[in-house]
Amino acid sequence: MAWDLIGLIYWVSVGLIGGLAFVILLLGFRGRVVDDHPICKKCGYDLEGNREAVLKGDGGRCPECGACLDEKRKVKIGNRAKVRKKIVVGVAGLMLAAGLGGVRMMDLDFTQSKPVWYLRLEARRPGWFQNTSEVAMEELERRIEMGELSEDEISDVFYDGVRRINEEDKEFGGWGTILDVVFMYGNPDQAMMDAYLEAVLESVELKWRKVVLEDGRLPFEMTSNFRDGFVSMVSWEFHVSVDDGGSCLFVMDGLNRQGTLPIGRDGKVQLSLGERKLHIEAKYSLLLRAGGKHLTTTTREYDLDFKVATRFERDQLLKRVKGEKNKEMLRDALGSLEIAKSDFGQGDVEYVLLSDYENSKLCDLFFKVYLLEGEKRVETGLRLRTKEESEPLDSFRLEVNGVELNVGDEVDLVLVPDVGAVCETVDVWEFFDEEIVLRDVKVVTLW
Question: Domain spans of the chain?
Fold first, then answer.
């Protein structure tokens, strides 16, 4: 059984209840003083008949056990009577502690009997309730679907999820599903829908490359806590204006996207060298899956500072990763690279690169991929990006320009450093400055 904060508090509480009950039980059996008679400490005989002599230390011997009573320390004062109430309370407390401990050890599930306020607490505090937080969210989903919650309870659960959207960690677990269920079965009012929209847009984070070329574009990356579910589509418009007078319109769907804003000579916004400021007025619109209902379109504004540089200035900021040691590390990192082939029929063949590797020192390196046929290189149109996580590469379409590959073949690949791809990211400034040749890469089936 995994320990969590609430589990620890639970066992400490059980221990305190049991300990306190045991002390009360002992006090009950010890009893309370009911008189001031002198009593033989050895056998408990009541010496009240010889009181004066005993108290003076001249009591002789105990008529019951024969113990010498010449010393006062061998005599105690007062008879004691057991306190039945304390005994009952002590026994009951020990039984309660044993019962609570037994229930916990047997891991009995009382989820369906828990009140809504407690389920909400468990769902909101996964750090406290590591063993039951997910179960609590599932139970809330079930009760909403079955119509077992009142409108006020549904509203409370919904706003719990909305507040969770903007907590520091980008993942908010099952709350996306809970919000989905509320929208499908809970009949949320307009205020709830507007609150969700505001929370999602509040979580939007926009990053961009700080240095671009005069004739290039401005790479950006948008992230948010938006999740699939009751929202079927998010569309947005970027109305872009630059401090030197240019402007353009950029339209895209989705909130977790990467792209480039059309600036420079190839775009509609003309830029000059130096420090620039770009202002974006973004209009967001979310479409509900149920009934195709639009949430209120909302506007956000962003100000981006960046530098327009010459190619020489740009290249001075890039860092070359080189050396035989790094080259061997890169070979090892891509040692499991394979080409997967899938045939969907009617001549529709697709090739993708797959790899499973772990290398934290050679992350975010970009290469163009070529097939090697003797001395001839066949361009595939593929860019490969290493990552620091031990996850498979994303599946990219491998266009081999008419070259037929069959499952079981082994081919040679050439990885050529791609500085252009580096400069299309928001935060990568390193590139490997040597070509890498990978021999005998296997062609396998995708499925």
Answer: 5-110, 112-188, 202-316, 319-445
pLDDT (0 to 100) of residue 81: 85
**Chain position carrying tokens 């947005």:** 236
**May I ask the CATH architecture of the domain 202-316?**
Sandwich (2.60)
First to last CA, the chain: 38
Rg for the chain, CA atoms, rounded: 38
Q: Which residues of the chain have pLDDT under 70?
A: 1-8, 59, 72, 103-110, 166-173, 215-216, 225-233, 244-247, 263-271, 288-296, 333, 335, 343-364, 381-383, 386-403, 446-447
35, 52, 242 from 72: Cα distances, Å: 18, 12, 101
The answer to whether residues 176 and 227 touch, using CB atoms and an 8 Å cutoff, is yes
Neighbours of 207 (CB within 10 A): 15
3-state secondary structure the chain: CCCCHHHHHHHHHHHHHHHHHHHHHHHHHHCEECCCCEEECCCCCECHHHHHHHHCCCCCECCCCCCECCCHHHEEECCEECCHHHHHHHHHHHHHHHHHHHHHHHCCCCHHHCCHHHHHHHHHCCCCCCCCHHHHHHHHHHHHHCCCCCHHHHHHHHHHHHHHHCCCCCCCCCHHHHHHHHHHHCCCCHHHHHHHHHHHHHCCEEEECCEEECCCCEEEEEECCCCCCCEEEEEEEEEEEECCCCEEEEEEECCCEEEEECECCCCCECCCCEEEEEEEEEEEEEEECHHHCECCCEEEEEEEEEEEECHHHHHHHCEEECCHHHHHHHHHHCCCCEEEEEECCCCCEEEEEECECCCCCCCCCEEEEEEEECCEEEEEEEEEECCCCCCECCCCCCCCCCCCCCCCCEEEEEEEECHHHHCCCCCCCEEECCCEEEEEEEEEECC
Instruction: Give the pLDDT score at 446.
Output: 67
- Kindly report the pTM of this predicted structure: 0.58
CA distance 332 to 329: 5
